Amino acid sequence: MKTMFVGNLAPETREDDVRELFSQFGKVRGVKISMDVFSGNCRGFALVDMEGHETRAAIAGLNGTQYKGKALKVTEEQPKTKGRGGRR
Fold first, then answer.
1. What radius of gyration do the chain's Cα atoms show?
2. C-alpha span between 42 and 68 (Å, rounded)
3. 8, 27, 59, 71 - which has most CB atoms within 10 Å?
4. Percentages (nearest 5) of helix, strand, coil residues in the chain
5. How far apart are CA 49 and CA 1, in angstroms?
6. Mean pLDDT across the stretch 65-79?
7. Residue 54 is inside which H or E element, if any?
8. What is the C-alpha separation between 24 and 82, in angstroms, rounded?
9. Strands of the 73-76 sheet, one edge to the other
10. Residue 84 within any structural domain of the chain
11. Does 64 map to a domain?
12. Which residues form the domain of 52?
């Protein structure tokens, strides 16, 4: 299973919207939308889990396409790297 980062989502986007959008490329295993605590609106990005070959098809088919008036940014999630953040 692979995870995709989906950016530039409209504030009114909900989990069912993202699931429906990505389901045209295969079985969606999971969707996590980042929601604003105060407004209850989407913060503009989500993570979507699909099988590997379906992930590649979804990225190719959706990256740069218009959804709810915004051009989506769909990429494979990059693993977090340990940085030098914080104080010395």
1. 14
2. 13
3. 59
4. 25, 35, 40
5. 7
6. 93
7. helix 52-62
8. 35
9. 28-35, 42-50, 2-7, 73-76
10. no
11. yes
12. 2-76
Domain count, the chain: 1
Q: In this predicted structure, what is the pLDDT of residue 13?
A: 97
Which of 69, 34, 60, 64 lies closest to 48 in space, CA to CA? 34
**Per-residue pLDDT reduced to its tens digit, 7-51:** 999 999 999 999 999 999 999 999 999 999 999 999 999 999 999
Give the HSE-up count for residue 61: Cα atoms under 13 Å, Cβ half-sphere: 12
Count CA within 13 A, CB hemisphere, residue 17. 13
Supply the CATH number for residue 48's domain.
3.30.70.330
| Phi, psi values for residue 23, rounded to 5° | -65, -20
Tokens 């051009």 correspond to what residue?
71
